[in-house]
């Protein structure tokens, strides 16, 4: 055994001789005392728990009470440290100890090997056959080791862990893999953190009060859960018209919560700017993303001295996600560059860039949403779910798909030791309804034991997600988006009562919007960043075989100077209103199809837009509504404060918007002035999408099927 020697300040510690040396002074110390110091030195500047020290130093042997505290007292005496103002060993009450000073390790001396004797050399003379056998064995061994090291990156088995009427999210393993912890949402403020013991199947509610909780992570020792908490459910805010936004970095004692639900301990309290994805570092320190009004920065918070600082921020790209690997002591940041490329940025714990990589072209894998990766258990690569599929991201930037038995993935987290993932899979069930506004009678959907109750009679009932229904301008058909085939497609609903699929796509990216041309002959939408123009001829519809569910429509694809995100509406037969994503924010443009030119409005955060009487009405992702002149950049926009941008449409020179509190569908003029109430809608069926001849189209929420599963 080689001697273990290391230095702390001007002290030399020799474990093999049980000595602490300072200059000419040599002090003999009990081996167990130095073993405690050795364990602390191995975890320099990290809190080592009492339990960990007892296990590593005494290894289960019976010891006298306060044996550990006695060792610490001896070390402080011999090293000249003061317990009240420590510079070498810090005490963390009821938790453990931390070595403050830097540690320098003395390299082990190289062994001098004896030269081989003639007898040894004769033994090494190999015949060709023996050499071939040895070479083949070594090659096979190397291949096997490579295969084991890269893991069998595919999953073929899936088992459900939960099956409830609520929906689950953000599932992770506990560090000892005995529990799976997840968020469970049951509507309103009924959201809690839960744990399921894998051996017994017992479920335990961990959070005492309902709240809005973000993605969960553990401290490395498994003692605490770490997450972002928002004040949405606070009773003090419930009756406030404009509640104060309050984000906090919160923790929960896991062991105590398993015995009885606990109130989260808010460590970094009430931040007005959004705080996301906190991760625990060593020694009561945390990292998280915080929004500063225009972009996210990676922040560091020290809970011991209550200070925070920026670890990483950039004006050249926009961070939108990160993960931390304790094994690698490394951050992986995901950002979008100005040219819309996705960047993987690897940082050390001080925020210094180790590597910055542009990930492979997303289009080669059908990836058109930002990648969000989590470290694998060993930290050798990252895992990401995109468009319901699982992908591996190497630390050198290669992206490859991993086969799984699920086509409904939402998120994954690795098992700490095995080739197993805990995942969230599921889908939303959203239907379309057509309501006659001239009929004041209550329109209810008939149902029995074998049907799902819906707020209104469904236009085309499926268990999939149907959305954005819009009448053709001639009123003869309704277009809508549905994922009933496993991916977004545009469908047509005929007045004959039959739905047909209009598009036949090859990738699984989301369709964010579309628009009818004024002659009802073309639908404009976006496919892989390109403008898609799908022609619908009247003769095709008249001669359509009702036994089929597919319409063979022709699509033309046009590349623009910048990749498009969505089509909103037609201004005229040659001009479209479109959205383009810059820095993760959608911006409004005019697109001239004939000249292929884009004219910016210099308006960010737009979600939808309409044109009426040479006036532009648009809504934002926050639900705000604004009015402006149609010509770009001529006049500043004016806020229409009475309107709800989340349930809004503009038609025939009027604005129609649904009140957030009462669900009243109200009519307004183009200046946002109230005219009258048309109808009171239902709490789960209020997102209006179009209006034609007193026939209202809307989306109605049926349910969310979102469960925790295990994949191996």
TrEMBL record:
Keyword Transmembrane helix: yes
Record Gene3D superfamilies: TolB, C-terminal domain, Winged helix-like DNA-binding domain superfamily/Winged helix DNA-binding domain
A Pfam family this chain is assigned to: PD40
Listed transmembrane segments: 126-148
Domain of life: Bacteria
Residue ranges of every copy of the OmpR/PhoB-type domain listed in the record: 3-101
DNA-binding region boundaries: 3-101
GO biological process: phosphorelay signal transduction system; regulation of DNA-templated transcription
Record keywords: DNA-binding, Membrane, Transmembrane, Transmembrane helix
GO molecular function, one term: DNA binding
Family: Belongs to the TolB family.
Protein name stated in the entry: OmpR/PhoB-type domain-containing protein
Organism: Pseudoalteromonas caenipelagi
């Amino acid at each position: 055994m080689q001697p273990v020697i290391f230095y702390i300040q001007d002290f030399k510690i020799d474990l093999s001789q049980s000595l602490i040396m300072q200059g000419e002074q040599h002090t003999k110390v009990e081996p167990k005392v130095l073993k405690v110091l050795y364990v602390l030195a191995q975890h320099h500047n990290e809190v080592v728990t009492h339990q960990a020290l007892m296990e590593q130093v005494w290894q289960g042997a019976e010891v006298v009470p306060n044996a550990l505290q006695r060792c610490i007292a001896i070390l402080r005496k011999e090293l000249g440290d003061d317990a009240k103002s420590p510079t070498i060993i810090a005490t963390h009450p009821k938790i453990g100890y931390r070595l403050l000073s830097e540690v320098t390790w003395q390299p082990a001396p190289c062994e001098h090997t004896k030269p081989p004797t003639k007898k040894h050399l004769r033994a090494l003379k190999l015949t060709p056959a023996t050499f071939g056998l040895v070479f083949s064995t070594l090659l096979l061994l190397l291949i096997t080791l490579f295969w084991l090291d890269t893991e069998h990156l595919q999953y073929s088995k899936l088992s459900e862990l939960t099956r409830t009427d609520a929906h689950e999210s953000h599932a992770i393993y506990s560090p000892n893999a005995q529990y799976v912890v997840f968020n469970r949402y049951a509507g309103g403020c009924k959201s809690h953190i839960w744990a399921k013991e894998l051996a017994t199947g017992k479920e335990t509610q961990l959070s005492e009060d309902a709240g809005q909780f973000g993605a969960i992570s553990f401290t490395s020792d498994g003692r605490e859960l770490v997450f972002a908490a928002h004040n949405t459910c606070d009773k003090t805010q419930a009756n406030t018209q404009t509640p104060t936004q309050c984000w906090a970095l919160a923790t929960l004692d896991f062991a105590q919560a398993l015995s009885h639900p606990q109130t989260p301990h808010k460590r970094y309290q009430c931040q007005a700017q959004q705080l996301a994805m906190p991760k625990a570092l060593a020694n009561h320190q945390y990292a998280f993303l915080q929004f500063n009004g225009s972009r996210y920065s990676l922040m560091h918070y020290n809970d011991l001295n209550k200070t925070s600082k920026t670890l990483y921020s950039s004006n050249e790209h926009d961070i939108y996600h990160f993960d931390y690997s304790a094994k690698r002591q490394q951050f992986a940041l995901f950002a979008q560059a100005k040219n819309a490329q996705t960047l993987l940025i690897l940082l050390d714990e001080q925020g210094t860039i180790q590597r910055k990589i542009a990930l492979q072209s997303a289009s080669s894998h059908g990836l058109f949403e930002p990648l969000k990766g989590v470290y694998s258990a060993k930290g050798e690569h990252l895992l990401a779910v995109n468009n319901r599929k699982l992908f591996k991201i190497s630390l050198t930037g290669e992206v490859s798909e991993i086969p799984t038995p699920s086509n409904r993935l939402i998120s994954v987290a690795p098992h700490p030791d095995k080739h197993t993932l805990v995942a969230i899979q599921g889908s939303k069930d959203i239907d379309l309804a057509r309501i006659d506004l001239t009929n004041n009678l209550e329109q209810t959907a008939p149902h029995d034991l074998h049907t799902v109750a819906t707020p209104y009679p469904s236009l085309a009932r499926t268990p999939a997600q149907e959305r954005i229904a819009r009448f053709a301008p001639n009123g003869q058909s309704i277009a809508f988006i549905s994922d009933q085939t496993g991916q977004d497609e545009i469908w047509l609903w005929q007045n004959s009562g039959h739905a047909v699929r209009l598009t036949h796509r090859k990738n699984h990216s989301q369709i964010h919007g579309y628009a009818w041309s004024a002659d009802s002959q073309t639908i404009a939408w976006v496919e892989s960043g390109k403008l898609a123009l799908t022609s619908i001829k009247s003769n095709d519809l008249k001669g359509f075989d009702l036994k089929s569910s597919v319409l063979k429509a022709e699509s033309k694809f046009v590349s623009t100077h910048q990749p498009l995100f969505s089509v909103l509406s037609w201004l005229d037969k040659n001009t479209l209103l479109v959205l383009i994503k810059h820095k993760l924010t959608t911006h409004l443009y005019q697109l001239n199809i004939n000249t292929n030119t884009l004219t910016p409005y210099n308006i960010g955060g737009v979600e939808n837009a309409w044109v009426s009487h040479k006036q532009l009405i648009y809504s934002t992702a926050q639900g705000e509504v604004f009015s402006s002149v149609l010509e770009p950049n001529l006049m500043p926009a004016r806020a229409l404060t009475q309107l709800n941008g989340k349930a809004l449409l503009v038609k025939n020179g009027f604005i129609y918007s649904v009140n957030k509190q009462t669900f009243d569908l109200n009519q307004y003029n183009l200046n946002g002035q109230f005219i009258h109430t048309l109808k009171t809608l239902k709490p789960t069926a209020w997102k209006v999408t179009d209006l034609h001849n007193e026939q209202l189209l809307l989306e109605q929420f049926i349910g969310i099927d979102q469960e925790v599963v295990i994949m191996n």
